[in-house]
Amino acid sequence: MPSTRYTILLADRQSGVVRRFTVGLRPALIVITSVLTLPVLVGMGAAWKARADVADLFASQATLELELSSYRGATEALTGQIQGLQTALDDLGGRAALDPALRSAMDKLPAIVKSRAMGGGSAAGSAGLAMLPSLNSPEDTFGLLRDLLQGLETRLESVQSGVDKRNALAAATPSIWPTAGWLTSAMGARLDPFTGGADFHPGLDISADRGSPVFATADGTVVHASAFSDYGNLIRIDHGFGLESRYGHLSKFDVEVGSKVKRGDLIGKVGATGRATGPHLHYEVRVNDRLLNPLQFLLKSARQTGGD
């Protein structure tokens, strides 16, 4: 069956020329369909591209939200570390303060005692900033900050340990007068109050009324509280680090062996037990059982009035 054909006439009114175009139905339909379909196809392509762009934007938004959540977590962790460091620094500042007189008394301790107290540990090293990694992303920056803060925390822990050790030594340093009275005999050579012959006095004699309170001169543990030889009723306190203090001629004990005492705690009463000519306190300080002169550690000077 022959296809239907159409003739299109185009006439030029000025020249009178008439042109004929014969077009088959099928090609005409194809052309018309193409002309009508092309915008639809272009629109559909644009819609598909827009949909793909929107999907990419949603994917990018999800990635950004994930990264933001990660950065928020990292920021909160860094903030917590910084607040922890600030708290530790504030606490360290409070614990690092020592009374100047007590610090002076500590300085007079034998080197072996101070070495034993500090433990001889080496200070924690800190990584220098000379070889910083390249910071190509926020992750690198957060990682570097975390490393630096962790290094500071490690260094701070080392400093805190040193402060704690120093404070422990300060608490163990016999630095206050054990009783209120008059210094009647210092440590060293003297005449024996009973025989009048040459004698070496191993501590301080502090004259006071019978029953006057006697106080621990530093923190420690009572290791002896009973009568002992010429000391009469004697209390010995172990302060750690090889330090020990002794309190003789007591009339009464207010502590017992094993008692934990702090500087200034009441431990007994002045008496005249043992080899004594009258009520007074005999006070000694020793390190590794070697005598130390207690006067060098006392925070205030005393008035010496003469023989015992």
Give the beta-strand count. 14
Q: Please identify the top-level CATH class of the domain at 182-297.
A: Mainly Beta
Mean pLDDT: 80
Q: State the end-to-end CA separation.
A: 152 Å
What is the CATH topology classification name of the domain at 182-297?
Glucose Permease (Domain IIA)
Note poorly predicted spans: 121-132, 301-308
Given the structure, what is the number of helices? 4
Basic shape: rod-shaped
Which range best describes the helical content: under 10%, 10-25%, 25-40%, 40-55%, 55-70% or over 70%? 25-40%
Level-2 CATH architecture of the domain at 182-297: Distorted Sandwich
- Class by helix and strand content? alpha+beta
Q: State Rg.
A: 47 Å
β content, as a range?
25-35%
Instruction: Give the H and E element order.
Output: EEHHHHEEEEEEEEEEEE
Query: CATH homologous superfamily of the domain at 182-297, by name?
Result: Glucose Permease (Domain IIA)
Give the biggest beta sheet. Answer: 10 strands, antiparallel
